[in-house]
Each structure stands twice: as structure tokens, then as C-alpha cells.
Specification:
The chain is an alpha+beta fold and about 240 residues long. The protein contains 7 helices and 8 strands. The protein has one domain.
Length: about 240
Amino acid sequence: MTGPRTGSDPASPGLEASWCATGLGDHRHCHHTYACYPYASLPPLDPDRYTGRFDWLGPAGEPVAEQVTRLTALAAELAAGGLTLPQDFVTFRTGSRRHTARDTVSVTGCWPDLSDPLPSPAEPGAALVRFLRDQQDCVLWYLYLRPTGEASVVQSCLDHEYEAQRDGRRTESDPEESEEQRAAIFWCAPSFEEFAHRFWIENRVWRATRGEDLPGLEPQLRDHLRHYAPPEVSV
């Protein structure tokens, strides 16, 4: 991942805030598969829209039994540590018409990969739960769960499950490596639903810019792209 960092979001545990994604044609450039864009530079999303129902994505479909079982076990494991699995994440993952929506729309081959709770290198008592990864592990996305009940989404170029397993094999802690792991984590969304919506929007917009189907964009997606367009360019 490349690109500038931005200031910390007030809701994050002192983490830098940015958005790791690919480019949007001539509207937002990217010289590699991904770049980290300043969070403050992103098109704004209406927080009142995120009720946990995912109305923007359509019907949930029937519950997926395998997902329900997996998330019930995960929620119990988190609860034992005083943490809570956010309901919007559960709603998304357990609906048959929703739980594969992100990887279906992804233009960089991202796929869902749920981990067990992982200790956060950023603060005691908090946990990471990986839920999505790039096919080449350029970037991985995690729920960030805090003892205060806050749940946000963070991104990292590290597989913190591997890092936790490696740390567990050490006889002594390494403060320098712990700081490197912390520095690799970036806050990117205040809730899972908002993350999912922005991810869904940007991947659909990317397809439109590559397929030259800009006139056919839905108004919401057109507004998202217009945020990056020079004043003299009509989108």
C-alpha cells in the first residue's frame, strides 16, 4: 500500500485514518493495485442512512445456517473477553443475498476470510476480527472491537493472525515489532455497514469508468464520481 496518512479519527484509538482502494480512472489516480487516500478526501456518506438493515443492498434473503453457526460461536468468544460483535456485521454475513456481495463486486479479487478474535496491538483489551482480504494479501480488513463497545473497520497490510501466532511462539515480547504492527493499522470506517457501502460504491464506479458506461451510472454513484471530477468536467 502506498500513499499519505491522515490525522486520527476521534472514534479511533489513536489510529491514522485513510482509505485503501484502487483508482477511479482519470478521476482518482492509482499507480499500483492500491493506494491509501486521505480519509478527509473521500466523498461524504450520509451516516443517517446506516441503520444496520442494508436497505441500499436489497433484500437479505434466507439465513445461511453455516454463517449463523460460525458467527454465534465468534460472538460467544468475543463476549468472554468483554467484547461485542456488531449487529450490522451479523446481519450482512448471515443473509443469503448479501454475505458474498463484497467479493462479487470486488475488482481486485477480494474474498471473505473470517478469523477468530485477535489481540489488538493498538490498545489492551481490544480485538481485531479479519473479515476480508485481497487475493494477494496487499491489504486485509478487520473489525476493530473495543471494550467500550465501539466497533469500527480498520485496514492493514499485515495478516495479524499470522503476527499473533508468531508472537505466541516468542519467549520475550519485542516492543519494536509491536509498534510496527500498530503502525500498519489504519482506521477506515466508523461502522461495518458504512465500510461495505463505500466498498460497494467504489467498485461499481470503477467498472463504469473502465467500461465507459458513465452515462448509465445511478445518481448516487454519479455523485460519488463527481466529487473527484474537475469543475469543467461533466460526469
